[in-house]
Amino acid sequence: IYITSEERKQRNRQAQAAFRERRTEYIMQLEQTVQTHAADLQNLRAKHHIVSNECLMLRYKNSLLSRILLEKG
After folding, report:
1. What's the rounded Cα separation, in Å, for the pair 45 and 72?
2. Whole-angstrom Cα distance, residue 73 to residue 48?
3. What 8-state DSSP symbol labels residue 1?
4. What is the percent of the chain where pLDDT is above 70?
5. pLDDT at 19
6. Which residues does 3 contact at the CB level (< 8 Å), separation at least 6?
7. Burial of 62 by CB count in 10 Å (0-12 exposed, 13-18 middle, 19+ buried)?
């Protein structure tokens, strides 16, 4: 229970070193998560662009087919 000043300093140094190591590991994990999310976002934007173009094309086709039906009555 009673430790010397030098032992206390040594424990504090070890605790701080462990804390810095945990913090570094946590930051690396967060950076990896950010990279993963950035890649996912890029993929989703590309897919959205494709689907948006497809939707526009289908609306145009629908409009043409509706005109044809109205003309044939």
Report:
1. 41
2. 37
3. -
4. 99
5. 98
6. 11
7. exposed
Amino acid sitting at position 35: Q
Instruction: Report yes or no: 39 and 31 within 8 Å, Cβ to Cβ.
Output: no
Q: What is the DSSP letter of 4?
A: -
DSSP annotation of 19 reads: H
Q: Check if the beta carbon of residue 28 is closer than 8 Å to that of residue 20.
A: no
d(CA 32, CA 37): 9
The per-residue pLDDT for range 13-45, each reduced to its tens digit, is: 999 999 999 999 999 999 999 999 999 999 999
Q: Report if pTM > 0.90.
A: no
Evaluate whether 28 touches 21 at the Cβ level (below 8 Å): no
